[in-house]
UniProtKB/TrEMBL annotation:
Residues at the active site: 82 (proton donor/acceptor)
Name of the protein in question: Probable acetate kinase
UniProt cofactor(s): Mg(2+)
GO biological process: acetate metabolic process; acetyl-CoA biosynthetic process
Keywords: ATP-binding, Kinase, Magnesium, Metal-binding, Nucleotide-binding, Transferase
Species: Chlamydomonas schloesseri
Length: 345
């Protein structure tokens, strides 16, 4: 953090440190906390407690808070939670089929993640469709090393692919995504793995990495191109699962979908993957325009054919801007009243 600040002082603005009014942090899990909050001993304790549910994200998030607090001693620090956008999910989407006690006593439910990104994508999709966000139904696909899909009705999230933790849903770089929960019990019994070892296996050694040897989709595409069977399998599984979720969320939206949005490292940069996902969906009114698809790399674009009933959009996500805006709102509006927030780092 000190290094970054020195770099900015030398290369951008000597007075930068004094211009910072707040620091906004992306925090993946905050248990019951979902609206942006000022970081206080109490909110920090909740984030620490939630680390067990987001082992890849909350610990480095806490390190970031510590480092930023050391460097920016006099400014408020704000947490913006990845779960916030998904708070509008109805109970039939967020509950698991488990004894109700587990929800009441331990808050076991689906929370969803990448919320800041999905929120930004919905706002931008509304601009591209020329309608208010409250009037659009969209399916947003955040496809990166971590990947998730959200079903959005009238601008509000009604379902999303990640669950209690960011492990559920799509096949990811190192995460397994959906599977029969009995697999976990079986692995522990058969292989003698501890809870911690199983957690590492599912979060850090599975997904594309576990199947193909690489969590970088570019390497997987290259391997498949050379005829490597496992890379081809990884590619097929990744794209099949995204298609499956788009189909499921079309049903969740009663077939009334205005647009499907592709974003994040894979969704923004790979026309090849978008083609594998979208082309077979033409029977669902999603007609890809090959030339427009090839052109939209790292920038926004409409990639559906002019007559397509459902628009296909590429939108580069901007979680940082969204976090900064929400942080500023917290700082200006006071933490208690805050629903969005602001940041300046
Ligand atoms: P993110 O987590 O959003 O930074 O996305 C990282 C993922 O995007 C990695 O799996 C990269 O391999 C993938 N990615 C980035 N550029 C491309 C590309 N041109 N084609 C395919 N995958 C890409």
């Amino acid at each position: 953090m000190k290094g970054i600040l020195d770099f900015i002082k030398e290369n951008v603005s000597a007075t930068f440190a004094r211009e910072v009014v707040a620091v906004g942090h992306r925090i993946v899990h905050g248990l019951d906390l979902s609206q942006p909050v000022l970081l206080t001993p109490s909110s920090l304790a909740t984030i620490k407690q939630a680390a067990v549910l987001a082992p890849l994200h909350n610990p480095p998030g806490l390190q970031g808070i510590e480092a930023a607090t050391e460097v920016f001693t006099d400014v408020p620090q704000v947490a913006v939670f990845d779960t916030a956008f998904h708070q509008t999910m109805p109970p039939h989407a967020y509950m698991y089929g488990l004894p109700y006690d587990l929800y009441e006593k331990h808050k076991i439910r689906r929370y969803g993640f990448h919320g800041t990104s999905h929120k930004y994508l919905v706002e931008q999709a509304a601009v591209m469709l020329g309608k208010p966000a409250s009037e659009i139904n969209v399916i947003t696909c955040h496809l990166g090393n971590g990947s998730s899909v959200a079903a959005v009705r009238g601008g509000q999230c009604v379902d999303t692919s990640m669950g209690l933790t960011p492990l559920e849903g799509l096949l990811m770089g190192t995460r397994c995504g959906d599977m029969d929960p009995a697999v976990v019990l079986h692995i522990q019994n058969q292989c003698g793995l501890s809870v911690k070892e199983t957690d590492t296996l599912l979060n850090k050694k599975s997904g594309l990495l576990g199947l193909t040897g690489s969590n970088d989709l570019r390497a997987v595409i290259e391997g498949a191109g050379k005829g490597e069977a496992r890379s081809q399998l990884g590619l097929d599984m990744f794209t099949y699962r995204v298609r499956k979720y788009i189909g499921a969320y079309t049903a969740a939206l009663d077939g009334q979908v205005d647009a499907v949005v592709f974003s994040a490292g894979i969704g923004e940069n790979s026309p090849f993957i978008r083609k594998l996902i979208a082309e077979p969906l033409h029977t669902m009114g999603m007609q890809l325009d090959a030339a427009a698809n090839d052109k939209a790399v790292g920038r926004a674009g409409v990639i559906s054919a002019p007559g397509s009933r459902v628009k296909l959009l590429v939108i580069p996500t901007d979680e940082e801007l969204c976090i900064a805006e929400q942080t500023l709102q917290v700082v200006k509006g006071g933490a208690a009243a805050a629903t969005g927030g602001a940041a300046a780092a």
